[in-house]
Amino acid sequence: MKQTPKTVLQHYFGYDSFRPAQKEIIDAVLQKQDVLTLMPTGGGKSLCFQIPALLMEGVCVVVSPLISLMKDQVDGLLANGVRAAYLNSSLTTEEQDVVESKAIKGEIDLLYVSPERLVSQNFLYFLDRVHVCLFAIDEAHCISSWGHDFRPEYTQLAQIKDQYPNIPCIALTATADRLTRKDIISQLALRNPRIFITSFDRPNISLTVMPGKNKMRTIEHFAKERSGQSGIVYCLSRKSTEKTAEKLQKAGLRAIAYHAGIESEERNKRQHAFIHGHIDIVCATIAFGMGIDKSNVRWVIHYNTPKNIEGYYQEIGRAGRDGLPSQAVLFYSFSDIILLREIVEQSGQKDVQKAKLDRMQQYADAFTCRRRILLHYFNETLAKNCNNCDVCKNPPKVFDGTIIVQKALSALFRLKEYVGTNTLIDVLRGSTRQDIIAKGYHTIKTYGAGKDISPPDWQQYILQMLHLGFIDIAYEKGRTLYITPQGKQLLLKKQSISLVHVSDIAQKIKEREVAKQRTTIVRQEAVPLFEALRKLRKDIATEEQKPAYIIFHDATLKELAEAQPTSEEEMMQVSGIGHKKFEQYGALFLGKILEFTENTSANNNQFVTA
Asked: Domain check: are 186 and 209 in the same one?
């Protein structure tokens, strides 16, 4: 029987259907087109090159930025029956020779390498002897200096198209704004690439921002309430990671620090301990987490304010990759902003990075649905509020701000757009500033139309318009404002727009605090079986020296606990169980489910006869 993307998905990965855009991306790759894919963390990016690799003749070379993750990525594929390998400095010369020999003989489908190795002369000589069918560049935003995690070694990847012009290339990232996307295409020299941007929405992650007071006490309380759950605390400095981990350890929690100052071997040990479930909490700088394939991280806390929304969104995306309820908490303080401004002053693309920090600060200060703000940043519109962030759960008072919004949009439109916020406000308030008059701005119809609103209040209303998606910022044009397609629609048709009263914002700031409730991921009646299956999985993982998620993800255990299958046929209907997984673990998990249901039935009968 001829293999298709669907049969490969079912046989190797145990899923019955594709997620949005996966099939279209896979088809484009199979047609040997260059592709740029933007898909949120946990959205199934890897399948977009893994499935073509199993259908195409030859080896797919995967560029992965962190050597420490390659083994886990490859182990996960091997557990699914996929012929995968990696080449990095952790292997002996003899082990590398074996991998290279297999690749040359066509006995490997996916070969993982670092960007530095890929562009080394020796490796390129080796590749000339391999039938390469596809290049996959993971974490592609690292190539762009516009992006949030620029890595100079990625810039050399442009050589790929020079050396192998006829081999398709797929670039993948979870977070890239408009400018970063353009830069990725240019830097990698992708040829007429198909661009796929799936929804950035992660509705299972609850979003909370709280003032940066009593942070340590709050984190300790938060983590204790979620004992046994995996979580990450992101800190701005190495010292903060050490101090935070130490305090959590003293509180009886299984926590470790992780940062670039720790020796490579020790870092790998700590990462291994977290992935394998020997440690619950990692207190880390942003050196931790890229590509971490741990699906059951239940919460992410930012001890300090991040420097841009792309980085923040990628970091919170490490929670809830299994689709189950998870939480993201951000501590926000102005002292963080001051420190970050100093850091940004020393960076490349200084003006752009300052503007991105401003957007991060505006997100933290906002009283609009936080998910709408995040999605708008990535040019996506959310039709209604999410009801899963602190603003939606405790909404501020609103008023009909339609006229205010229309005045601002009309003025921006008549100014031919691309003016700064202060200029727009001065026009709306009828300023007689010399440059306003010199440019003829005083002659437009909406000049002075908002003189009854103070400059600080206009600043707030324009910020709300930005968050609602009616206007955006053109970083490449001096951080000026322009009207979005959604804003242009509003100018053409009548639509009521709600704004938050500026007076209510001050009151709301006093009321904010973190949600106390524990995240529930399994129906109450299924919890005992879920925990029994987790214990079985942990025992198997310990015996086989594998991370628990390689056996089964939490989402698969949840479905097993709730569906309680009693046969191979029923168990194969559960997401995440393919043929290879059932062969290896099916009997053990079926046995545990049957044992549990028999014990439950016996206990119920005993209760009835008593």
From this structure: no
